[in-house]
Fold each of these.
Amino acid sequence: MCGIVGIIGRKDVAPLLIDGLRRLEYRGYDSAGIATLVNGSIDRRRAEGKIANLDARVREQPIDGTVGIGHTRWATHGRPNEANAHPHASARVAVVHNGIIENFQELKKELQDAGRAFESDTDTEVVVHLIHHHLDQGLPPVEAVQHSLKRLNGAFALGILIAGRHDLLIGARMGSPLAVGYGDGEMFLGSDALALAPLTQRIAYLDEGDMVVLTLEGATFYDADDQPVAREVRQTALSGALIGKGEHRHFMAKEIFEQPQVIGDTLNAMYNPAQGSITLPDLPFDLAAVPKVTIVACGTSYYAGLVAKYWIERLARVPVEIDVASEFRYRRPVLADGGLALFISQSGETADTLAALRHCKAEGQHTVAIVNSPESSMARESDAVLQTLAGPEIGVASTKAFTTQLTVLACFSIALARAKGAIDRKAEQALSGALAEVPGRAAEVLAHDERIRDIAQFVADARDVLYLGRGTSYAIALEGALKLKEISYIHAEGYAAGEMKHGPIALIDETVPVIVIAPDDEDELFEKTASNVQETVARGGKVVFFSDAHGVERMSETALYAIPMPTVNPFVAPILYAIPVQLLAYHTAVLKGTDVDQPRNLAKSVTVE
Ligand code: F6R
């Protein structure tokens, strides 16, 4: 959510800032801007919309300078127009900001009363004027920033430029991530290591409350009490090459088609084929003693957690509580003594999930983060990490992160069940063997791409779409509906199929496509779902049915479209059935002509509450 870059070097920084912003564009794309120091004075270029617009502006009006900051915005306060685009600046200070300054109204009033004039509707501009005010009072830049930071409430990562000081670039972090990159005679700031990958592989992260002062020679970190501190410099494995779309038109398509590979990579880190067993990385607590599991996440990651609730309770017979992070943290949840709290997040930076992790840690829970980014805040702050090996996910709608989360959670469920003695070796072999088949089966599912593209023609004309499923397929129905609404802007809802007659069936008529997720199973859920489908069809509903060959045959007369999925152990079905709903959303969005990879109003990494 909002991307920041900063560079202090020896050559013109504008092209490098724009390149860094391109890598961060997935974090927000409402507007963008850069500021540099030209002969000691702040110069800026800003543009509404995507980085391409900023790039065009800079080509028309080039900007030089060897120190600079850049920003790509996801609007919180103020419309996404040029006036509200970052960097915000006065004659003495320029600032880029990711996060929210919660007390900005009170500060703005105070600063306006002191005679300072504001140009934008943003919360960020108070930071500019606060620092300017302290500089005017005679404080040197570092102290002026330190004094200003003490006045801010909320979450922020900041990049700060001071007029007349081309030898200085300042960063600060409270709640939003910020990385420092070490170059050769040049230094960098970035929202994440991905932005800095082509510039350097040597990265240090600011801790909560840290400020950092960059010069050409290096970085000096200060903690929340303004004391100099050392922060570890690590080597990141990220490649500097700009991640491409390969033969695909969109990142989302590329990422959907990468799933057989990345599910396999993720599984290989935990699955021993010779033994037919699952081994988790070392955990600093005894799994066998865990009395309860609490799962917290947002959005798609939450739906992965919902599948895991079914898996864990069924296999390990351990109670699972699950909540979306924004609700969890404010409802004073009752946690079990010695309980395990699982946090699921692609980015590892989602503000609400991170806050929930900190809460659970403070309450003495064992904390495990399932993240795709091993250098993220959640990875660094949890007791243990189970990594999804999805690789960088650039499309804003999550796809391969979801199925790799499911893969990790499936392994975790088996390991917990074994540790608890709830399943025996034979069952472990059967379940992990079924998991090992998933990459190959996922490739078979992808072969239905063209058929699903045809179905998308029918869905693209709809105003409302319903997704139905039971058990773990209920979670996939919710995920399918989320995918469709976020990239095609068609209203969609996921329901537990059995809930239809308690209200939603009133929506059914011949204009509402009903997407049914119904793998064959051991619990008669298929039969129950099939009955719900008959009730829907009897009321004019047009059904798209995803099931295995047997289920498809059963529904061939009833469903408008039926797609035969591979016949698999029902345990792994949710991983495979996630794929057709991703494809359906993707093709519908393409037909509607939306911006598939960067849908309106969204951003990839939600670092504000
Ligand atoms: C939907 C989507 C979001 C994220 C959510 C959590 O396609 O991508 O719903 O799943 O914002 O993000 P992470 O997983 O980074 O915590």
Amino acid sequence: MIKKILAILAITLFAASAHAASKLDAIKKNGELRVGTTGDWDPMSMKDPATNKYKGFDIDVMSELAKDLGVKVKFVPAEWKTIVAGITADRYDISTSVTKTPSRAKVAGFTATYYKYATVPIVLKKNLKKFSTWDSLNKNGVIIATTLGTSQEEKAKEFFPKSKLQSVEAPARDFQEVLAGRADGNITSSTEANKLVIKYPQLAIVPDGGKNPAFLAMMVPKGDKVWNDYVSNWIQDKQSSGFFKKLLAKYNLKSL
Ligand code: KH2
């Protein structure tokens, strides 16, 4: 009998402590949702240098999540090379969306996804004849620019094993290396590429199609199932209610 009571007590205590360890409780208690974001990803997360305020698709998503949680939202500046470390070091409760990658998944949890994109290479328009396929960029002597800490940096190793990869550190960007002629190409999401070729008419998308369908999701601390389930269910609810559809239209985005 005593054994049984002790066992029940132990289970209750364990369940209570497991629950208490969730970010969800801390967020509600503190009245604040801390969101890590880089502010350099058009149109996901953009920091306005004039006001130091963030705006963008993911900024709207996080503001809505905080509103539904009944708490304030606080954006914590993050960088691509340390965005995962910010989650493991508890600098924020959640990140704005990042590409799901196996290496990030080793240390951070991913919520449900809400955006799928393809990857395309970008080259100088005047080099389109020389670089008209993915394969043509995978060659000795070809330089591929990447941005440190991004999923594209990881993927470039896979796509271009024969080329030389050159990483730049944010706020510098890979495509700027292509523009400056220091690199032959870079890879990015079709979403960003379409915007870049309008802004910089010297750039062009390599025409032989997108590769590597990738998914965006928010990062949360690994193993916090309560918090991850909460956010993932919230995403699904918001998808059913049409919130994401409206927001995609607002930012002229189209998930694959
Ligand atoms: S990812 C985000 O999660 N991007 O894929 C990459 O690593 C974002 C393409 C850095 C903003 C600057 C745009 C590269």
Amino acid sequence: MGRGRVFAATSNPGKFEEFRSLLAGLSVEVLSLADQPPVVFPEEGTEYEANAVAKARAVAEALGEWALADDSGLEVDALGGAPGPLSARYGGPGLDDSGRVVRLLGALEDFPQAQARGARFVCVVALVGPGGEQAIARGECAGRILASVRGDEGFGYDPVFQPQGFEGSMAELGPEVKDQISHRARAFAELAPALAEIPVASD
Ligand code: ITT
């Protein structure tokens, strides 16, 4: 039996791996943009939903295919919910994931109490079809920011994020646990019915 296919509208390899593993049980194939003509992505704004839709729409329109995008971020209580949708750019250009983590730990130095270090990951996923079909879902994962980095799995802020109810960081818990509890896992679980509707590819 054939499968539907969807292009992952992301340039983040960590996200792409998670798209693949989270959707492995569905009858849909997740493809990367690697072998496709370059797609121009819109400038990102400050709303997860608008960003996710814009990324998916750009790919769906450029390729005439189904496209799946994720806009996500880390919201830290002590920082009034920042960096949020700006998480990928936190600390300015020139920083990589570990540079941003160091910057975050520095910003929280004066907030040692567990409560003030409360945080959540948020993820909004958007599925857009070649005919303009659209579905959106959201997921969150609550936790706190650790005092220092722990573990080397995952990506982004995983080494300093301890999910509620767990010992250790998301980067220590590894992909099997992350795929059960993450913001992205929850968003994809909600999007599953729409993903299952993607028609079987004709070529
Ligand atoms: P694309 O737009 O190409 O998908 P991006 O990394 O720029 O890639 P976002 O604008 O959605 O994507 O930024 C999300 C950032 O939030 C990401 O770069 C991480 O820093 C952080 N983040 C999101 N999900 C995360 C996760 O599961 N673990 C750790 N950090 C995460």
Amino acid sequence: MVKKISLLGCAALFAANMQAQSPSTLNLIPLPEKCTVQAGAFTINPQTKIVLSANTAQMQHAVARLNEQLSSAAGFSLAVVERGAGDNALTCTLNPKLKSDEAYKLSVKKNSVQVEAKTPRGIFYAMQTIRQLLPPQIESKQPATGVKWAIPCVEIEDAPRYGYRGLHLDVGRHFMSKNEVMQYIDLLAYHKMNTFHWHLTEDQGWRIEIKKYPKLTEVGGYRNRTLKGAYVAAEKRQWDNTRYGGFYTQEDVKEVLAYAEKRFVTVIPEVELPGHAVAALTAYPQYSCTGGPFEVEGLWGVHNDIFCPKEETFTFLEDILAEIADLFPSEYIHIGGDEAPKTRWSRCHACQERIKKEGLKDEHELQAYFIKRVEKFLAGKGKKIIGWDEILEGGITPSATVMYWRAWGGDSSIVSAIRRGHNVIMTPNSHAYLDYYQANPKTEPHAIGGYLPLWRVYSFEPTPASLTPDEATRVLGFQGNVWTEYMPNFERVIYMAYPRAAAIAEIGWISKGKRDYDSFQERLIQLMTRYDIMGIRCNRTFLSEGRSEKKEK
Ligand code: ACM
Ligand code: ZN
């Protein structure tokens, strides 16, 4: 019997059927746009083939991840062929008629599985759906015995709401190894997110090798002390005096990029300017206003020493950005732009001369001048810029994409930026700062502050209600930010990011009317079985917060 059910019903039915149908469940995150569940299942066995309608590298990548999991969990992988019989096969066909590059159709029948997508990216997402439809043991790193590798019969038509679905990681405050970064990318791709925002430079550490300026990493990659515990008044601060640091060579970066490409993840590098530059200025103090000397910071927060907009600083930054632009294929480069105090600029001769020479009103216009010059330079390299929402202060060309984080300003600033022609990416600290506490601070590891439980992340609507449909297309998507001041290692990063990142992924994917927090929690509970098998230790406090709780604690 074929059951047509609503999306919510789809999840609920499977939650209800789980005992009966175990281990096949349909606890998908993000929830597909349309799904119809049928009786029966397709079972993968060692003779099952993957048939690709086009044998390109991208098509191979699209199916490789599923095959890797089968290889480790089932002990066999599937032959990938170009043509073949429809039976006992997962047939992947490119179909230009699908509505977007990331859309896919998945039809699982007892004898065969058909996948259609406009691009290999859509095929990849269908494969992630298949992974989640298979028994949880598919995530095992060791062969799992006695498992029937069954995929329930379903008809799914799916496409994301937003083209940008991101997760950020600050490796400046705490360094995460190349392998950890790759794990982070793998996990976000599993949730059908498509962008990794790599925050590579900070006051507390410069993390990417720049060939022309080796001291950036030799000197700027290491600090002599780190604040221990809470950020308290100066006289009460405690320090860990262990030398701390690390950086990625350009070869490391290439490895990460190749890994991300196979998962259809775009890596957007961030080079912070003009602020959050103390590590760079420690290595090259001549590009500051005062000339230094400086020390790579061990204290969090906002620091006054920033790049001085003199000619030689632009040469320095352009040399750096030229290497970054060559290394990263992304069309966007994030240039920071946030939290740049004007304390030094207001007293610096070179800065004041620049203000006069360029006919600028004040230091805010000087910052806009700074960003515009960098934007123009990068445009010459075929790149567009993203900046934190401070780039709007002092005026900036609408070609810059704005990453909105200061939710305390309300929606109005971002709505007016959209009306002036900017594209925006929503990462408001009210809903997307995954460094905030997700439960009672008394029972959680020390965090930066704030309170952002899972339900609140899930309640976010990325598109402000006052926008016209045309203006709404300028909201590119939603991203979670993971600042690591209080995340000394990767285990803590994962604990803070997940499961809230799963909510970010779902809100970025599903239509507005489809969201349902109860259904999300039901599906998440099942997904967590998979996290356990993957070795992902996420936060579990939402399990005790009450299913529909919407109140402040
Ligand atoms: C930020 O949180 N300073 C972008
Ligand atoms: Zn200056």
